[in-house]
Amino acid sequence: MKTILHCLALTACCALSAAPKVDRYGQSAAENWPGKITRDAQMRAELERESAELADVKPDMERFDRFGGVKTGKPLAATGFFRVQKIDGRWWLVTPEGNPFYLKGVDAVPYTERGYFTAARDSGGTIRKAFTQAAPDPAKYLEAWSKDKKLVNFLAANLYKKYGPDFRERWMELTEKRLRSWGFNSAAKWNNPFHFDRLPFLHDEQLRVKRFDRFIDPYDPGFEAAAETQVKAMCAKLRGNPYLIGYQLENENGWGRNAPAILLRDSSGKLAAKRALLEYLAERNGGDPGKFFDRSGAPIETLMTETLATAAVPPELLDGFIVQASRRYHEILRGLVKKYDPDHLFLGASHCSSQSVEWIDGGRESVDLIALHEYDLDSRWIHGTLAGKLREWDKPFAVLEFSFTNHRRGFACGSSTVVKTEADRGTAFRIYTEKMAADPLCVGTGYFILYDQPVTSRGHDAEAYNFGLIDVTDRPYREMLAGVKAANARLFDVHAGKLEPIPMQPLRAVKRSLREFLPESVGAVTFDSSNPQFHHNRLDRVRFGSNARFGVPLAVGTIDAGKPDGFEKLEFYVFLWKTEKNRNLSDWFQLEESADNVTFSPAPAVFRLHRDGPFREYVMAPQALKPGTRFVRLSFVLNDPAAPWATSLAEVKVERR
Asked: Where is the signal peptide (predicted)?
């Protein structure tokens, strides 16, 4: 008898077009929906209606100070700038006027933030065929184009069409009213290239310093001088601004646990961080770092030009070096920021789950609060992996990026945070933000982002997601915002311990154990996702990668044929992020076979491209199974911990004899 097992078979919702088409407003040309903009007059009518709706919105000065701090009747010390303070066992931000403040922010408020631009031209220099109608005229819509005319911003052009030639000031006024009416009190981060300083905000910058891979080398002789030049200029613009909460330097570029391996593989002899690592190992091995590499007695100068491996180096030593490197990085930057602006908070780098806990540990003493990013409704990183450490450190943190998306209107389906409807996005917002507010260590959240990313993907990478509270034509997602407003009205009291957070709800399409899909699989953890292929990488991968065994096959699951030679057909549908296309597929996905589910041997696989897009979907199948095979095991290889989302499993199809 033949049976077919569909594993996580929701790939239909995730069909990705290789070249999504957009109309002259930047909307998907392939779909229609109620209220889709087809004429400029529609946007102007929307502006009149919404302006009237928000006409009476203004700060409530009886309840709040001018920075959004809550007047509790028990004022705290007013220093003229934002600070952090622990009150009755809970951490809070405190406004310049001395009132407690729980950050409720939105990221990337400025419409000219680089994530709102998309590539305007193809590789030959002509306007992209993805634009089914004329692109915005650069002579008329100047702010809609990058200086080199390689990137275009449909959002900026739409704002001009909607608000008129003086659109920036009119947009600023309406945006402030929108954010206040939705319950937000901060512009959070990504306030580039201009600051939306009508609300408290954060400033973030990427450092122009020497790197290896994407990681900063804090041991480079020129690091401090280069950083000082940039920090001095940064602080000169913002010092004394009471609406600035603090500075964040670097975004999700903290060292992963693979950083020492990358350093040791380098044979250029030029990486200062490699020299520092070898010196660190020498101090802990009787002055002979070569012992770890079967090169006993070799001087550091020689080892600097050799390709080395971490296999024989105790993991605790590698972890210790990451802590040391992070401590150096954060101490130098804190010193520079406080030298040129002693009044504002220093957040250091932002951190995400692809980084090592050791990097966060090394910087915690230098920062005023820890900046975290997490894209997971269940918060398995912050309230799982990090929870014990955060409590041990007793350090306040803020979640400055989180989001929930929908795959309709032509958007990509590659995020682990997809829910079924716009209303569900609002409910997910409530669940996540209230869960965070209930944590005594959390001082606030910043939602990523105000507007959707371009359907044709943002210009500097392939992200094309429905992250926004507002679409590209400046129309708010009202169904989502109902949940957002409900949450924001409660967050201060939830954090104060006066209200309980709302409970988790089954928003997404699947909630089962992985064992139900992959018998005998190692992944027995319950998951919940309407894009369940990402379960394997977002949950199991975090667990698999915790021992930093990068480049080693990690078993996802085992399929049982039920009897020897029982497979008639076996296919795995796997995704690979398209920027990894230069690697062999077998570097990422591997099959093994076994007769007894104990002893496994490699089973060569063949791959067929099934669907193109930001994630390329392949059908993977064993080339030929040996006689007697009953079990086939699928493994992923974590080659790049800086991109843990690069690979995922979508579906398994089995026909048994």
From this structure: 1-18
